[in-house]
Amino acid sequence: MAKTDYKKDIQKLVKMIRKVGNKVADKGSYKERMGKHLVIRFYISNKLFSQTISTTPGASTSVKKTYADTRRNLLSLGIVDARFSVRMSTGIDETDEILGD
User: Fold this and answer.
1) How much is the pLDDT for 95?
2) For the residues 79-95, what does the mean pLDDT come to?
């Protein structure tokens, strides 16, 4: 798979986190910082959500780990959203299903 496919998955995740953060975060607490990695932080009812995201993932495992970490962080704040489960546009999930048959 091309790295651009992994980048698309990460970009999709970042957009979803931004939507959630801007919608439910405590007023004025949403912050992003771009360095080597993108760091998104906000508070919901004085509970911190902090996610560090590599904007240039090298493998599908790093993308899956980022999705899983995000889902776990949101669950700790009481936010359950199926869109944060690992569904990659790179086609890896279809391959896994084929191999499982």
Assistant:
1) 41
2) 60
Left (φ > 0), alpha (ψ -120 to 50) or beta: where does 80 sit?
Answer: beta
Sequence-distant contacts of 38-46: CB under 8 A, at least 24 apart: 38/14, 40/14, 44/77, 44/78, 44/79, 45/77
83 phi, psi to nearest 5 deg: -65, -15
Global pTM value: 0.75
Mean of the per-residue pLDDT values for the chain? 82
The tokens for 4 are 């651009």
Please give the single-letter amino acid code of residue 53: I
Distant-in-sequence contacts of 24-32, Cβ < 8 A, 24+ apart: 24/79, 25/49
Q: 73-78: list long-range contacts, CB under 8 Å, 24+ apart.
A: 73/49, 74/20, 74/49, 76/47, 77/44, 77/45, 77/47, 77/49, 78/44
Q: Is the pLDDT of residue 97 over 70?
A: no
